[in-house]
Amino acid sequence: MPTIRVNGVDLAYDQAGAGPTIVFSHAGIADRRMWERQFHQLAADHRVIRFDWRGYGQSGDAAGSFAHHEDLLGLLDALDVEQAALVGCSMGGTHSLDVALLAPQRVSALALVCSGLSGHEWPAAMWDYARELIHRSVPADRLEVYRQHRGEPVREQDVTAMAQAYGRFLIAGPGRDPAEVDPQVWQTALTMIEGVFQREWSGPLSTELVADPPAVGRLAEVQMPVLVVNGLCDAPWIQDVADILARGIPGAQRIDISDAGHLPPIERPQEITAALRQFLAAHDRRLTRESTDP
To answer: Bridge-partner residues for 3, per DSSP?
Structure first.
């Protein structure tokens, strides 16, 4: 497993293939493994890169103050990527969009899958729903201990319970029974979510910084080709963000994936790979025409 030093931390990454570069950014409830199918299949005609954020997967710990979008831009520098198509899911989409606004010359295209949006205010109804699930899963006093990183051992049953809660919230979605999710998809997702909370609760204290200014209110500035992907079983409040992105970004394309929650790349891998291939192929042809025009 290769790692590379970015902004003072070692980031684990994989790369393969040759051609126009694609960089995959995972969701906040996952790690770079969520892109398994897309990574290997798109490597046939692209240089593909996937990585774990700091504090996730096999990357170094998140400690002190940092910004994930700055790490993403730093990764491009460290791997000598002059320009890339950025593909991000959930908060990985948030960070990809922030990089596109911070350094538009470095981003040739954007694919935002069930994406967040920096500066967006989530409605109280979402927080109420999430809190109810969480508080039924892990006692409030132990959850507070974990959040304060007091150094007390993390109970395995709490990690499992939290993963189950987030699975119901995001993998299945509020309107779908977890039993309707393919068992292999469910287990793959829960394994990643368990890893997220195990590290978050047992690692050092850290402060994540957000883009300043944030992307909300700036979508009209996005000039590169954009694909917005929405899972129709995802939490409705996240689907609302897909509406905001698709309406606010000039020329954005949108596709809706049926029977998919918050992680369509693992739940509907063939559809996502095909959508990305079609989107990027049109983009690659445009770049080729521009480079050969007199």
So the answer is: 12
- The pTM (predicted TM-score) of the whole model is 0.95
Short-list 264, 286, 285, 259, CA closest to 275: 264
Domain boundaries, the chain: 3-121+209-292, 124-204
Q: How many CA atoms lie within 13 A of 216 on its CB side?
A: 13
Backbone angles phi, psi at 173, to 5 degrees: 95, 155
pLDDT given for residue 291 in this prediction: 54
Instruction: Over range 180-204, report the average pLDDT.
Output: 97
Rounded average pLDDT over 48-58? 98
Separation of alpha carbons 76 and 214, rounded Å: 21
181 closest CA partner among 275, 240, 239, 263: 263
pLDDT, tens only, 108-123: 999 999 999 999 999 9
Architecture of the structural domain at 3-121+209-292: 3-Layer(aba) Sandwich (3.40)
Q: Would you state the structure tokens that stand for residue 240, as one six-digit string? A: 């609302």
Residue carrying structure tokens 């974990």? 146
Q: How far apart are CA 39 and CA 35, in angstroms?
A: 6
State the pairing for strand pair 3-6/9-16.
antiparallel
What is the pLDDT, as a whole number, of residue 293? 59
Task: State how beta strands 84-89 and 226-231 pair.
Answer: unpaired
pLDDT for the residue 225: 97
